[in-house]
Amino acid sequence: MKKKKRADELLVERELVENIDKARRSIMAGIVFTENDRIDKPGTIISVETPLRVKQKDNPYVGRGGKKLEKALQEFDVDVSDKLFMDVGSSTGGFTDCALQHGAIKSYAIDVGYNQLDWKLRNDHRVIVMERTNFKDVTPELLNHGLPNFVSIDVSFISLKHIFPVLNKILQPNSDIIALIKPQFEAKREQVGEKGIIRDPAVHHEVLDKVMMYARESGFSLLNLTYSPITGTEGNIEFLVHLGWEKESNTEAFISYDRVIEEAHMNLS
């Protein structure tokens, strides 16, 4: 028997909206849809595998992740055009949509879940859908369209320390990685506040230190760092890191965690 949930809760779980209040207001505004039908009540019970999309005039992408990748591409001055993209933790496909709109030739959309990818992307011949796939099980042999040379990572309930040692085995040389750092899944349990919120800049600094250590241990170089332009579920500040595979970094010494954290708190808190 398929598990079911309230529609408003699923919207938050999939990070289509920031919080439960926004989910309910979006449904009442008539901008939340399944594959073919509009959902008109926040308490509507649906299968957890039901496709959901939110029509947002201010977002050109199918999911909020697109805005995050867009900022990374602009601020890090990195080009995804003509790249074979991989979206780790694709969910509705915001990162994939952004990459394709910026010229990526194809995108692997990998997610352990099922039926979350937006219908537009599911029917796009450039998207290689890899649902019900645990990234830790991905090998070069599973990548029938070739090894990627540009990867985004947006995963929940797992630390990036479990992702990097798999990723470094499936990349082309000179690859770029944009990883979303979610502090609530990297910090110690006692450092995470109510509803999974972390507000302490010192904890954010500790998290960034740990994630960079994990990256270096797996052979990645740190190229740049910024904060996500929008908060995650329930208002958590998140960070975007640009890593390189088989790339030398001439910028790491100039990257200030404190400056990035301060700007994030100033603009998002």
Automatic annotation (TrEMBL):
The keyword RNA-binding applies. InterPro entries: Hemolysin_A/TlyA, RNA_MeTrfase_FtsJ_dom, S4_RNA-bd_sf, SAM-dependent_MTases_sf, TlyA. Pfam families: FtsJ (PF01728). One of its GO terms (biological process) is methylation. Keywords: RNA-binding. One of its GO terms (molecular function) is RNA binding. Signal peptide: none annotated. Residues 61-244 form the Ribosomal RNA methyltransferase FtsJ domain. Transmembrane segments: none annotated. The keyword RNA-binding applies. SUPFAM superfamilies: Alpha-L RNA-binding motif, S-adenosyl-L-methionine-dependent methyltransferases. Belongs to the TlyA family. This is Hemolysin.
